[in-house]
Each structure stands twice: as structure tokens, then as C-alpha cells.
Task: inverse folding
């Protein structure tokens, strides 16, 4: 039987799953999800999986029929591959929900060319990842197989899906590039957007360096059109370059809040914008220096500065000038043209657009650069706001070759599953294996279609290890999300991720006798990065959190001092190590809640193409855990901000943090609403953004609003950067 031959009138898995959302005698019918899972495996998976008599026959057939890459399997003996499979089978892996199994087989499992038969199960995909990422190292292959089959580690979707396949996409799918203020670089940027979108990439593009509308173009004695027409060109590029219609190209453009085109930039996303300028699919983000918050708090006028003039005066592109430090000098300099607006009026415009569309993302750029241990300047982020890495602008000749090669960013991601990691037999060994798996992807990535990204990856070897399942772990242990215990736990967990990822990167640098580019000018090399760790105990303080980490090694100040000495002596291989993405389909496969966010519903409703609604009960949901699963929409967002802040202090990059708001605010949630309207206003978002800034949050991703008619508005879930 083939998949298209399934008689949908006889299978029960969709019906069972739908019943999960229909209470019976006041009870959620969780047992129906188990029945849906069993029926799906029995009637969809088993009859439609191609059978082989042996592993040898299977791999031989897959290679001969061009399903898997030649070469990487030859790095292992047949005996070892058999041993690896015997181990994986002995772990007795089973999915825990219908959604997990459905997502895996619909999105990840290798199928025949006609899509009628599955060619692998979960164990096969785990084995493929372990064998490929270990690159012939049998010990590492076994360790990675152990991490992935026990779902302590989840490679990013592009990696997990594509490794080992003959016909595949790239192993990374999130990029960050920038343009400088000339036509050659704009043209090269549009070409880069086309190329990266073609391979399935979500692309972040910094436009802050472009001269504003009306600025002079001396060569033609004319005036520039500003950033909005370039945004339209980019949106059309992403729409055109969409993997033959299989996946919508996705991009985000970033602009400094001090750019003179900022009002027009925000206005292009409004529902009532003129069709000539309206952006339908392109995402927006703004980079916000400390100075903006200061001017807003003073209710002061603020100046917007001409990037063209600033670059003439300072000799560097606009993004590379420290606005907070230079603000008064910029105001006083008559050579720099400027516009004046009221800071609070601009802030209200930002909040109005966030209410309407969920955009713009907010990048607290000075916070990112203050905490950045690497020599250089961070000027933007990526499609999901968790990447924060230094870049160097490129210069492009008239023939589109580079007069100066720049440094841009590719996002190479993976995630720990918190609940399963906390049960790891060796926390440190687990993280070290994950870091080596991530580093393997960085080593093999070679995107010559965009030379600045190829150059950045070659020099930096950057990766981004993150985490998912915080809320489900807390609920499992009867801890309220956002409580002092939950926040303390989050801080300790990310301290451990930081410590062991540093240990791993240091060990790789020592083995290879190689560090990331310009290591000697980093805060790692001079040791100052470690100051806060060698002077304070970051381990568990409360009895509850001490019990949660019982049996897990907690580094002391002496351990941090030893690590500091090792890093100063032997260096680090990876320029960046940690980042927390929003997590999409992989959190379902892991039977986990997404990222560090609270849940939206105890039973989540997902709209799946061609199928309709699928329901996903929160992991570990039971009568005992029910009180600990409060919806994000009913939660004070300061609890989310505090949670992310606890993690952020140990993460070298950023965390993709979404805020969840109801259009009608529940009574008693925010004290500043007392005596005022219960409707969400721009003031609510203004207050929360300032709170996040003061708590050290580096970026805010979407603002998602739940309206009174139960429709969710705002941006759709990021499909190009999911892990």
C-alpha cells in the first residue's frame, strides 16, 4: 500500500486527535491522543515504510538510487554501523504524542521520489545525523546518537532534515548581511538575498547605512529615494526566489531608530499604506541605542541624522558610529543634516505598528555591544532576532567584485531539551558532544554564492546552542513559570550551558591549534570576560533549585578560574557559541514546549496545510500539572522578561523573545492599568519595552496580540529560522 492509497474514511488518527479538544465530563481526553498516535503508526507509518533485509542492503539501495550522499558512510566500518543501530534500537524510542510522530513523518522522514513510501524512521534519521556530524569519529558518533535518541539534543531543522541526503538543502538557513551607501553594494545585496532565499534562507538585511530620501547624489546631481524603494526591491526578490514555490522566501530589514527615514520605514508596514510602498511579507526590525530610551524618558525632541553626512564626517558607515556616545557632537555638527521629531511620538508610532502587525522587532544595540566579548561592532540581527555577531562592511567595485571583502553571518543552530538534559548522566559530556556536532556543520558549510557569508563562517566558526522546553520542565516539577525559583533555575541552567560550551570550544582550539579570527583582541584573550564568574558563585542558592541540580556538577569560582587560564592560553575555536531561537516543529518532535516561552494553550491548536487542525496537549499535562500551565496571554509579561534576562546574562548572543498580549488586559495584571482603560494601549507596550531594556534584554521578537474575537493577529510563525 502507498500513502496515497490510505482510505481516510477508515483511519481514526485525525478523529482521535480532534477529540483531545472536546472535553468529556469536564476532562481533557488525553487518552485520545495516545490512540491517535497508535493508529497513525499502525495505519500510516508501518504499511508505507519500505522494508530491507539488512542494514547493508538498505544503505546500498539508498546510495545506488541517489537518496544519500556517497562518501561519508565509508568513514565507518559496517560493523560499527551495525553496533550503532543495535544501540539505538535498544533505547526503545517512542513518540509521546500524535503531533510529534505526525511532524516527523510529514516534515523530516526521507521518502521515495514519488512521496509514496517512507525510507526511514526516527532511528534512521538519528543515525544519519550522528554518523554525519561525527565525521568518522566512532566515539563521537555514539555519543551524538545517545544525545539525539534521548532527545537531549535537537539539531536545527536544516541540519536534522538534510544531513546525509543526496538531494538536499543547506545545513543552515538563517543569514545576516548588510549594505553600504552605494549602488554597487545595493545591487550585490539584492543578488545575495536572491541566492540565499533560493537555498531556503531567512535573511536579515541592515539598511541603516543607506542615505535618506532627499539626500544628494552628486554624480547625477539628483536626490536619493531613501530606504523604502530598496525594501520593495528586496520584498519582490524574496517573493521571486522561493524554492520553486515550495517555500516563501523570508527576510527582515533593519533600520536605526535615528535614521531620517524611520517614519516612512514603519509606515510601509501599515495596513492602510499606499500600495506603492506597502510591504506585505517583509519583516521589519529597528536597532535602538541607549540614547533613544534616555530621550523618551525626558520627553525630549530627538534628532535623526543623515547617514550620508555622518559617513563623510566620521569615515565609517552610519551603523558603525556610536550614536549614544556621539549624539551631542552629531547635533552640534553643522556638516551633518538632521531632522527633528519628538521621541515619545516616535515611540508611540513603534507601539502602534506592533499592535497592528507584531512588528518591528527591537534590537537594543548598545546592550548587545556592551556585552559583546568580540572585537568589532554588532549592527543588526537575523530573521528571528537571536543572532548578535560582529560584522565588517564590504566595498564593491563597478564590476560587482569586492574591493574590500566584508564579514557577514550564517546561523548554525541546535537546541538542548531542558527536561531531558536535566536527566543526562553527564551534563558536561552532553554539551561537549553537541558543540562538536555544531562545529562540524560550520566546518563543512561553504556558501560561495555569497562571499561575505563564506568569509564570515571561515573566520568565525560561530554556532548557536540554545534550549527548549522550559515551561514543560517547570510544570513537570510543579514550579510556576516566572516565579523566583523558576528564574533562579533558568540562570543556573544557562550558566552551565555557557561553562561547558566554553570548555568544548577551548578543547577544540587546543586540538586543532586554531582559534577564531582575531581571538587575541577579544575579552576572552585578556581574561576580562571571566571577571563576573571568578568573583561570584553562580550556582543554585535556594534549597529547591539545589535539589533540581542534585548530582549535576556545578562549577565553582576556582573551576571558572581554571577555565579562564585555559582559554587565555589555548583560545576558543568558536567566536560565538550560544543563542536561543524560537523553536518550531522540532519542539513538537521533542514533545516539548517551545524555546523559553510559556505555553499559549494547554491544548494547542495547529492549522496544518491540506489536513486542517491538529491538537497538541502540553507535555506532561495531567491534573497535577494543570495549575502550572497558565497561558502566556494571561501572564504578566514581566515574568517572561525576567526569565529571559536570567538566561541572557550567560548567553554571548541573544534570545528570541516574543511578548504575548491580550487586546483586553485581564484585571489586576498590570498595576499601571488600575483606574484606566482595560484595552491594550501603546503605553502598555512602551512600559514593557523600557522594562526589558532595563533588565538587560538584547532583543524583542514579535508582539503577538490575542483579540477579543479570539483571532490572533500579528506575524505568522517564522518558517525560515525554526530549529
Result:
Amino acid at each position: 500500500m502507498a500513502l496515497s492509497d490510505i482510505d481516510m474514511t477508515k483511519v481514526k488518527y485525525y478523529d482521535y486527535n480532534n477529540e483531545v479538544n472536546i472535553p468529556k465530563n469536564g476532562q481533557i481526553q488525553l487518552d485520545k491522543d495516545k490512540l491517535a498516535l497508535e493508529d497513525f503508526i499502525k495505519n500510516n507509518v508501518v504499511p508505507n515504510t519500505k522494508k530491507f533485509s539488512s542494514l547493508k542492503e538498505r544503505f546500498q539501495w539508498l546510495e545506488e538510487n541517489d537518496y544519500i550522499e556517497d562518501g561519508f558512510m565509508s568513514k565507518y566500518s559496517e560493523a560499527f554501523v551495525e553496533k550503532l543501530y543495535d544501540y539505538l534500537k535498544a533505547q526503545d524510542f517512542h513518540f509521546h504524542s500524535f503531533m510529534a510522530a505526525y511532524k516527523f513523518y510529514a516534515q523530516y522522514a526521507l521518502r521515495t521520489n514519488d512521496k509514496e513510501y517512507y525510507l526511514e524512521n526516527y532511528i534512521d534519521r538519528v543515525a544519519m545525523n550522528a554518523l554525519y556530524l561525527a565525521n568518522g569519529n566512532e566515539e563521537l558518533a555514539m555519543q551524538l546518537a545517545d544525545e539525539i535518541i534521548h532527545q537531549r539534543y535537537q539539531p536545527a531543522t536544516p541540519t536534522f532534515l538534510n544531513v546525509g541526503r543526496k538531494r538536499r538543502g543547506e545545513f543552515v538557513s538563517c543569514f545576516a548581511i548588510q549594505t553600504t551607501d552605494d549602488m554597487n553594494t545595493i545591487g550585490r545585496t539584492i543578488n545575495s538575498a536572491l541566492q540565499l532565499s533560493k537555498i531556503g534562507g531567512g535573511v536579515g538585511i541592515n539598511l541603516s547605512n543607506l542615505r535618506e530620501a532627499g539626500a544628494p547624489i552628486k554624480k547625477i546631481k539628483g536626490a536619493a529615494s531613501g530606504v523604502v524603494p530598496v525594501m520593495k526591491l528586496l520584498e519582490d526578490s524574496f517573493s521571486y526566489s522561493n524554492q520553486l514555490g515550495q517555500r516563501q522566501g523570508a527576510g527582515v530589514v533593519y533600520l536605526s531608530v535615528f535614521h531620517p527615514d524611520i517614519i516612512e520605514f514603519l509606515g510601509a508596514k501599515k495596513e492602510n499604506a499606499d500600495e506603492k510602498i506597502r510591504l506585505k511579507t517583509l519583516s521589519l526590525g529597528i536597532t535602538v541605542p541607549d540614547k533613544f530610551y534616555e530621550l523618551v524618558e525626558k520627553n525630549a525632541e530627538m534628532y535623526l541624522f543623515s547617514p550620508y553626512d555622518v559617513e563623510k564626517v566620521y569615515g565609517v558607515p552610519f551603523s558603525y558610529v556610536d550614536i549614544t556616545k556621539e549624539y551631542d557632537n552629531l547635533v552640534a555638527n553643522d556638516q551633518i543634516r538632521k531632522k527633528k521629531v519628538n521621541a515619545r511620538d516616535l515611540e508611540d508610532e513603534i507601539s502602534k505598528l506592533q499592535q497592528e502587525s507584531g512588528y518591528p522587532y527591537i534590537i537594543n544595540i548598545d546592550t548587545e555591544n556592551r556585552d559583546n566579548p568580540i572585537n568589532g561592532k554588532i549592527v543588526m540581527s537575523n530573521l528571528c532576532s537571536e543572532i548578535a555577531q560582529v560584522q565588517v562592511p564590504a566595498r564593491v567595485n563597478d564590476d560587482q567584485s569586492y574591493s574590500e571583502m566584508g564579514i557577514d553571518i550564517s546561523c548554525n543552530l541546535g537546541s538542548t531539551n531542558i527536561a531531558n538534559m536535566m536527566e543526562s548522566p553527564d551534563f558536561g559530556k552532553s554539551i561537549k558532544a553537541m558543540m562538536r556536532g555544531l562545529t562540524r556543520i560550520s566546518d563543512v558549510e561553504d556558501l560561495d554564492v555569497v562571499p561575505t557569508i563564506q568569509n564570515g563562517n571561515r573566520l568565525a566558526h560561530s554556532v548557536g546552542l540554545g534550549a527548549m522546553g522550559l515551561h514543560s520542565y517547570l510544570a513537570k516539577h510543579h514550579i510556576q513559570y516566572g516565579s523566583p525559583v523558576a528564574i533562579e533555575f533558568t540562570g543556573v541552567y544557562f550558566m552551565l550551558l555557557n561553562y561547558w560550551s566554553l570548555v568544548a570550544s577551548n578543547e577544540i582550539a587546543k586540538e586543532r591549534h586554531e582559534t577564531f579570527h582575531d581571538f587575541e583582541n577579544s575579552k576572552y584573550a585578556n581574561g576580562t570576560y571571566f571577571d563576573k564568574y571568578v568573583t561570584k558563585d553562580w550556582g543554585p542558592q535556594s534549597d529547591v533549585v539545589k535539589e533540581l541540580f542534585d548530582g549535576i556538577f556545578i562549577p565553582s569560582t576556582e573551576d571558572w578560574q581554571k577555565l579562564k587560564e585555559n582559554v587565555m592560553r589555548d583560545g576558543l575555536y568558536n567566536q560565538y557559541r550560544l543563542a536561543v531561537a524560537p523553536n518550531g516543529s522540532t519542539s513538537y518532535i521533542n514533545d516539548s514546549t517551545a524555546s523559553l516561552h510559556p505555553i499559549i494553550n494547554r491544548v494547542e491548536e495547529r492549522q496544518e496545510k491540506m489536513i486542517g487542525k491538529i491538537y497538541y496537549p502540553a507535555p506532561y499535562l495531567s491534573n497535577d500539572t494543570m495549575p502550572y500551565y497558565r497561558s502566556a496571554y494571561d501572564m504578566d509579561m514581566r515574568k517572561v522578561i525576567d526569565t529571559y534576562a536570567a538566561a541572557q546574562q550567560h548567553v554571548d548572543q541573544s534570545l528570541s523573545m516574543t511578548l504575548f498580549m491580550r487586546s483586553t488586559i485581564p484585571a489586576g495584571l498590570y498595576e499601571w492599568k488600575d483606574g484606566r482603560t482595560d484595552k491594550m494601549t501603546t503605553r502598555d507596550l512602551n512600559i514593557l519595552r523600557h522594562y526589558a531594556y532595563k533588565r538587560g534584554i538584547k532583543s524583542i521578537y514579535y508582539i503577538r496580540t490575542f483579540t477579543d474575537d479570539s483571532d490572533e493577529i500579528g506575524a505568522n510563525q517564522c518558517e525560515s529560522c525554526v530549529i
User: Anything to note?
Assistant: The two ends are 33 Å apart (CA to CA). The CA atoms of residues 290 and 366 lie 6 Å apart. The mean pLDDT is 93. The domain at 178-404 is CATH 3.20.70.20 (Anaerobic Ribonucleotide-triphosphate Reductase Large Chain).
